[in-house]
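Minutes, project huddle
Topic: does the predicted pose make sense with aspartic acid bound?
PN asked that the exact inputs be recorded in the minutes so nobody has to dig through chat later. Recorded below.
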Amino acid sequence: MKLVVQKFGGSSVRDAGRIRNVAGIIAETYLAGNQVLVVLSAQGDTTDDLIEKAREINPRASRREMDMLLSTGEQISIALCAMALEAMGLPVISLTGWQAGMRTSNTYSDARIKKIDQERIRRELDKNKIVLVAGFQGINRFGDVTTLGRGGSDTSAVALAAAFGADLCQIYTDVDGVYTTDPRVAPNAQKLEEITYDEMLELASQGAQVLHNRSVELAKKYRVNLEVVSSLERKPGTKVKEVVKMEKSSIAGVAKDTSIARIAVVGLEHSPGVAFRVFSLLGKARINVDAIIQSIGRGQSKDISFTLPRSDVEEAVRTLEASKSDLNFDHITVEDKIAKVSIVGAGMMTTPGVAAKMFEALYDANINIQMINTSEIRVSVLIDEQDAAAAVRAVHDKFFGDEG
Ligand code: ADP
Ligand code: ASP
Ligand code: MG
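Predicted holo structure (tokens), as shared on screen:
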């Protein structure tokens, strides 16, 4: 008997009709003779609505209480979907993250899955039950509810697939696979039959929200047989795997991230150890910085700019300002109307001129580049947020359009 893990995202369980549709897919998989372990997200915009509700009460609510609140969204979905399966006469049980044994690190709102206690799920599967697990949540060593970061239900699903050695992990969503870019931004985006873990990880980390980046990291580590499929249409989706057939294009796709900001620390002393002091302070505050640029020293002073998640700006500024006399800088500037557009592809390691082609597309579209940042299989540019969609289309057309 095969074990299949199926994850359904928010739009796939949006209302009663969609929940019945999902129950139908689960039932079909179960009745075909498989064991089925299901992960569900909160319905539609529930998570955003809960965040808004919290803001009305206390805009600076603690992360612990935020997790307590946000985890309720997924619980609604599992209970409703279990009821739909019960109505079909199928044996089913829904479990919250803690009932399912999802043990996480302590960091509220951005917890990592540490281990999964398997007894409960095993027991239910052995009783031939369909098991529905609330995604995006777990429990830390204090016995408190944690959440895994926005989009984290994908990671719950892949972690369960890895822990239970599932034969297949299907991520059902509102698109029928992974495309060369977000089809909502570029309607001529093309569906990929398959993509490597490495390329998918870069795309996901650079803003392609179709998969949570940590889910791809886990899938690669544990060689999970992963696919992205539509919950609304029956067609083949996209396989995410170690090696794929040769692609025509040197890049796999284009991603954009509009959730970032840039901070410049202006007028720092031009002496050794300054960058170390700035970034160790940010590190201690658990702030992840991405691209970093240090200006060439002007006599006694220099500037350091870096990008970071927009949600961390306040904390970063507070942290730096608190050490202003020690760091001895002049002032801080914050720019949050920026975006990052990236091209990703293993092919760029062996194809010269890929970066130049991207820059040419941006030049032709009259889009100014503020910063550039690369990895072996990625080139990212920082641009004005208002240019982001146009930049994605221009770059995508250059690589995948008729002349690409
Ligand atoms: P779910 O609620 O099922 O988790 P998400 O909204 O998190 O779904 O992710 C699916 C969305 O990701 C799609 O609707 C699409 O707009 C967006 N997306 C961004 N980049 C891509 C891409 N390269 N391929 C497919 N979808 C993408
Ligand atoms: N409901 C959570 C979110 O919106 C988790 C998820 O959907 O994956 O981020
Ligand atoms: Mg998602």
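Observations noted during the meeting:
- The first strand starts at residue 3 and ends at 8.
- The chain has a mean pLDDT of 95.
No decisions taken; revisit at the next huddle.
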